[in-house]
Hints:
By secondary structure, the protein is α/β, with parallel strands linked by helices. The chain has twelve helices and 18 strands. It has two domains: about 5-145, Cytidine Deaminase, domain 2, CATH 3.40.140; about 155-375, Dihydrofolate Reductase, subunit A (3-Layer(aba) Sandwich), CATH 3.40.430.
Amino acid sequence: MTHADQDRAKRFLDIAARCAWRAGGYAEPNPLVGCVIAQGDTIIGIGHHTRFGALHAEREALANAAANNNDTHGATAYVTLEPCCHHGKQPPCTEALIQAGIARVVFARHDPADVSGGGCAILNNASIETEHCQLSDAAVHISDPFFKRIQTGMPWVIAKWAQTVDGRVATRTGQSQWISSSRSRRRVHRLRERMDAIITGLGTASFDDPMLTARVGRPPRRTPRRVVIDTDLDLPLDSKLVQTAREIPVTACCAAELQSSEYFRPRRTALENAGVEIMGVRSDSQRLDLDVMLKQIVNEYNTTNVLIECGPGLLGSFFEFDLIDEAVVYIAPLLLGDELAKAAASGRTVPSLSGGRNFKLMSVKRIGDDVELIYRRPVEHAS
């Protein structure tokens, strides 16, 4: 690519990624994919995969071009993911690109499926030039959750918390409502509606008694399952989570042996009668194996994105086992100055800075007087 080609590719792939982002909460478990069709520097078609089962991004972009009477012959398609060449709920995108007379396809990532590279081969055989371009970080990262689930069987795990300027998430007595502003909390609800599941701990479920729902003033994109890490099945029956379990799904994750224990039968029965699902998870020294639990959630509920909203101890465990992919942090203009106030994560012993977890700052946004920071764990992209 010339420098002009590189600048053009990055710009159009950035646009395609922003377009793809609109489908978060609608398209999963499919990947978020966007497509821009251009003649030189002029966009003639744009589209994204809008929801699971709907047209793929390339076909949406081609339809957009046709609706505006734009000729796609000789055009370039910029796509965040290699065009598919297999039949699923939709026909192959390679067929549509060939029929539309597209001359060149620039994509940010190879398809991670068994047919990876197959789309390029078919396009090349039809005399369509293909180019793998990773100049747009947004286009590469937009499909991270999909890639992680396909390649590891694990969901994309996002930790969310609100903290004071001096890094405290609650007072020494546990009071945390509310550190962040109402505007920040509205953004959290919009984040929740993009999730498949929200995980919390027994302490938060009992002390804060949250609903953990997505309240966005309209029907949410999706209704995330509420998951409580509850080793001994102590979730209060009068909690909001249990009381609403028949309307909005709740799963209590307990030690695996409790599923067959006669001693714990009354607790299991009471929760199940209230509509709570019980999931047994392998445990060690009264701690559930969080890695195993996340894989079970993926397998049982076809989960791609998980949000962690919990107390410092449990969050510290997720960090300890390197299970957090992304952190969304709200910093409020409040300072406590109390060394016994609670930090976001706890329970680890880290004698040197080298023992900490490194994250990359992806976004900084001012929300009124609050600041929203988004961090991601550095990921190497070979594809």
